[in-house]
Task: inverse folding
């Protein structure tokens, strides 16, 4: 069984500050995918990134960056120069890849990020 | 493309009533899923389908039934609603999994259900 832990329930930062959202996972599978989704106040879930367990390169997309460290089973998400539009609930998720075909996407409990103007 | 749509957006039921939530996708995806989201618990998988005519149980299937008669539609039914089923329900879809590869899921806007 797999587990995703987002220990930070709520974070508030002042606009333009940098903020890091933590994600720690557990899985016995050697191959898996990690995801981050954003849920803005409007409620829909927006896909942000997918990362394969074989690819430990960090990724940057504009103000967003992701740090994947297999050694610590972490996949942290950093927003640089935060903006009010970044206020949302962010979910980390894990999907193992095996030969059984019955793997599921497991979500963390989410981190509510509030950017204070 | 509309993506993934859900009907209705809001619903209030009385305990014991039944209802069906409809999910439709126009992306020709093989896989479809129903989740529920509750405060502090993230999203939990109720049922899923890997193709037309097939369904399987997820993490929290009790009290729900599903059907996938058409590839583009995935229905979630509550036969006898209970207050514990008050939640936000999300439908999602994804393309067929290729060996060793997994696509992201595309989510609908959600249905907020209250059971009194």
Result:
């Amino acid at each position: 069984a797999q587990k995703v832990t987002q220990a930070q329930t709520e974070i508030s930062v002042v606009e333009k500050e940098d903020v890091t959202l933590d994600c720690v996972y557990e899985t016995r599978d050697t191959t898996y995918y990690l995801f981050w989704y954003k849920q803005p106040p409007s409620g829909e879930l927006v896909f942000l990134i997918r990362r394969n367990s074989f690819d430990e390169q960090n990724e940057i997309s504009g103000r967003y960056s992701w740090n994947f460290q297999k050694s610590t089973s972490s996949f942290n998400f950093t927003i640089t120069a935060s903006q009010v539009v970044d206020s949302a609930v962010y979910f980390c998720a894990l999907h193992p890849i095996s030969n059984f075909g019955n793997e599921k996407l497991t979500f963390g409990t989410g981190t509510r990020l509030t950017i204070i103007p | 493309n509309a993506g993934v749509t859900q009907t209705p957006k809001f619903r209030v039921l009385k305990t014991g009533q039944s209802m069906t939530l409809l999910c439709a996708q126009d992306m020709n995806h093989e896989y479809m899923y129903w989740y529920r989201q509750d405060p502090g618990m993230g999203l939990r998988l109720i049922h899923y389908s890997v193709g037309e005519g097939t369904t399987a149980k997820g993490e929290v299937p009790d009290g729900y039934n599903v059907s996938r008669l058409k590839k583009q539609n995935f229905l979630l039914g509550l036969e006898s609603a209970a207050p514990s089923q008050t939640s936000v329900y999300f439908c999602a879809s994804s393309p067929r999994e290729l060996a060793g590869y997994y696509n992201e899921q595309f989510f609908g806007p959600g249905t907020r259900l209250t059971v009194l």
In short: The radius of gyration of chain A is 14 Å. The mean pLDDT of chain A is 92.
